[in-house]
Amino acid sequence: MSTARPPANSALVELKGVSVVFGGKVRALDDVTLTIAQGDIVGLVGESGSGKTTLCRAIVGLTLASSGEVRLNGKSVAGQLTTNPLAFRRQVQMLLQDAVASLSPRMTIGRALHEPIAIHSLPREEASSRLQAILKRLGLQADVLVKFPHQISGGQARRVGVARALVMQPQVIIADEPTAGLDVSVQGELLNLLLDLQQEFGLTYLLVSHNLNVIRRVTARTAVMYLGQIVEEAPTRELFDKPAHPYSAALLSTNPAIDPAHRTRRIVLKGEIPSVVNPPSGCRFHTRCPVAQARCSSDSPPLTDISPERKVRCHFPFTLDPARRPPSADEDH
Amino acid sequence: MSQANLATTTALVRIRGLKLEASTQRGTAHILRGVDLDIGRGRILGVVGESGSGKSSLASCLLRLLPSNITHLGGQRRVRRHDLLKLDDTTIAGWRGKRIAMIFQDPMTALNPLFTVATHLVDVLHRRHPGISRQDALGRARAALVSVGIADADLRLAAYPHQLSGGMRQRVMIAMALLVEPDLLVADEPTTALDATVEAQIVDLFEGLRSKFSGSIVFISHHLGLVAQLCDDLCVMYGGTVVETGPVAEVLSKPQHPYTQALLACEIDSDAQGGRLVSIPGEVQDPVAPHMACVFAPRCAQADARCRATVPALQACGAQRTVACVRYGELG
């Protein structure tokens, strides 16, 4: 049943110049290029309205790209959805942000977990025994199966969501805010579980989170989004140590640390995130950027490689040789 | 009830043995199980705790805004020598918006969609200063918007709430609270609904307000990092009780209560990559369960027989610090 997995480090999910336009006006995604390698954990950060959820939906095929292409295993997602949608959906599963709301209130947990097996006409015996093994692995007791969603805790609902995704034996799991709304005392448990499952099942993750500490700890690479564009993509550690894009620098500086020794000077941006209906000209960040130059308001910077591992969409990234940077950009970063 | 050795001499609010119970279908829920707390004059007190710890209920008690299924409210809450519990409804209603103000968690629903920003602000001023002229009130309202960092104040005064962004609405809420010039300002998770860069702006605003605002602030949050940066004092709550209090920096650098220690261990707050993440096993105690022992004992790695048999009282543990743990002193 399960297909042979591609070798590690080969591109599993590729987005090439993907734009998503709603109603002809709202450019929710604008020229997004991102590659997720097999076995990687990639983090996605950005504020609300930056396009994180639209990007997730584009990968799982719930939203189709207006231009550009999304590929899974080298094959176009749009093509796979027309030829064999069920086979495609088995490969890419999504953990939804609100785990309780994603379960039907009128179905017991057991029914909700068996439903995908029926929809995908999986061999019943095999799928059922796999489900049992997964439930055991996730620490969900059998009595959970007869309960309704309102009778289980938030942590349990999230594990039910994970079980429902795993029974399809996916290659990629898109996790949209998996720890949002969970208390600090239990989020570690869920993240440990997700990391263990990644090893055991050879999974690839795209992890969306507002929690920068979670992204920093769990992911290998991170993409930062602003107004529908990826403004920086880098190995997580390099990004947190030395952000190249002024927006990344500001976003990361807002993360309050408990230990005074870890605190950095907070960069407070002017204003608020503009509307995607009418985005600023040139670089979309120039209206709030502390180091914007004249050129930034007219010229849109492309996503450029600044090292083999890093890409940034900025005319004057902080990693640039200081001699080539304009004087006002010369802040202490 | 032991006397908590907080900044008692300068306390604006003094809470002793505050209990809050509500009747539910499953029985009586113990929402607050005897809270002792002092709020120092002119200080910012951070209240942290996980969901269900009673943070917001404590805030509601401070304003006495409580739902109708409350069956028992006991203990003492003194503000300037008045016991809030003994005030009649008319008197306490008169305090709200004059001596006590609150900033709610969700700025989207806290403003009335039918009225402009100016109406909201002027209403607050009319209540606070009866007889104020409309011109004067509008002038002050405009100044308040400027002080919370709203550009184009004249334009915004005429705007309706739906025309403002989330951050802007929260600024309007803060401006309303400041116009009251309250002795006590209660801010219940004021930045939780906001985006990271906007949250940074609001936190910056709170820091800037410290010099202008003479009252005390209770800042409720589940975000330890935020509280660590903004507040003077810290109160850690768990299961409807206060487990530890003290100056922020000291509590966070040398936590005494096992729950505070466990909570800090769960924070992912370092460069360390790899390794297991820490969590606290078990679940928060059911509020319907009777209060016979330490509420944290079922999840505490250091609990012994005494913890399961006695309710720990809040005891002094060093200058201006208190902890509610029977094993305090034994545990290194």
Topology of this protein?
The complex is a heterodimer of chains A (about 325) and B (about 325).
Chain A: E1 11-22, E2 26-37, E3 41-45, H1 52-60, E4 67-72, E5 75-76, H2 77-83, H3 85-91, E6 92-95, H4 109-119, H5 124-137, H6 154-166, E7 172-176, H7 184-201, E8 204-208, H8 212-218, E9 221-226, E10 229-235, H9 236-241, H10 246-253, E11 304-307, E12 310-312
Parallel strand pairs in A: 3-8, 3-9, 6-7, 7-8
Antiparallel strand pairs in A: 1-2, 1-4, 4-5, 9-10, 10-12, 11-12
Helix pairs in contact in A: 2-3, 4-5
Chain B: E1 11-24, E2 27-40, E3 44-48, H1 55-63, E4 70-79, E5 82-83, H2 89-95, E6 100-103, H3 107-110, H4 117-128, H5 134-147, H6 153-157, H7 166-179, E7 184-188, H8 196-209, E8 216-220, H9 224-230, E9 233-238, E10 241-247, H10 248-253, H11 258-266, E11 315-316, E12 322-323
Parallel strand pairs in B: 3-8, 3-9, 6-7, 7-8
Antiparallel strand pairs in B: 1-2, 1-4, 4-5, 9-10, 10-12, 11-12
Helix pairs in contact in B: 4-5, 4-7, 5-7
Mean pLDDT of chain A: 88
Kindly name the structural category of chain A: alpha/beta
Separation of the first and last Cα atoms of chain B: 25 Å
Note the overall shape of chain B: globular
Mean of all residue-level pLDDT scores of chain B: 86
Nearest-angstrom radius of gyration of chain A?
Answer: 21 Å
Across the major sheet of chain B, the strand order is: 6-7-8-3-9-10-12-11
Strand content of chain B: 15-25%
Structural class of chain B: alpha/beta
The counted number of beta strands of chain A is: 12
CATH topology of chain B: Rossmann fold
Along the chain, the helix and strand elements of chain B come as EEEHEEHEHHHHHEHEHEEHHEE
Q: Hey, which two chains have the biggest interface?
A: A-B, 39 and 41 residues
Strand content of chain A: 15-25%
Strand order of the largest sheet of chain A: 6-7-8-3-9-10-12-11
